[in-house]
Write a structure and sequence with these properties.
By secondary structure, this protein is mainly alpha-helical. The longest helix has 35 residues.
Length: 153
């Protein structure tokens, strides 16, 4: 059984931001995306957040910290709110995200290896030739010809 947040007096967006670590701008954004139901407002138009809204913001923040995108967070919120959900649906979403994270890790590691290899090839001196820039430009020849380089010295 999920513990419910204890009853608190409704709080303004600044206090909700402070309690959850979610900026006021992002709280408004989440509301606009429908991840957070529109809260009631005071007569002067200020949003008032109850304990459920704060709990939802904590949930969204944690999901963002784990790298979930907004679409996945919307699905997770729906599953979280649905007491008749199957945990298999939650696990499937989580494992899909794990696979996506693994693919990103592998891509980052490949980028790191490539850049490290290019940096190894770079002399790092006063010469104009640079394998890093050559690779970025998609050439295997230096952009400055050897004759021009020789005339500089």
């Amino acid at each position: 059984m999920t513990s419910r947040p204890e009853a608190i007096q409704p709080i303004n967006i600044g206090e909700a931001s402070k309690q959850t670590g979610v900026s006021a701008k992002m709280i408004r954004h989440y509301e606009g995306l429908g991840l957070l139901p529109p809260p009631p407002r005071t007569d002067s138009g200020y949003r008032l957040f109850d304990a459920d809204a704060v709990h939802t913001l904590h949930f969204i923040r944690r999901a963002r910290d784990l790298g979930f995108g907004m679409g996945d967070i919307a699905q997770l919120l729906d599953l979280w709110r649905n007491r008749r959900r199957s945990s298999a649906a939650v696990k499937k979403l989580a494992m899909t995200h794990v696979a996506s994270l693994q693919a990103r890790i592998e891509a980052l590691e490949a980028m790191k290896r490539t850049l490290s290899d290019l940096a190894e090839q770079c002399h790092g001196d006063d010469r104009a030739g640079c394998p890093i820039l050559d690779d970025l430009a998609g050439t295997d020849k230096p952009l400055v010809s050897a004759c021009c380089d020789a005339n500089r010295h």
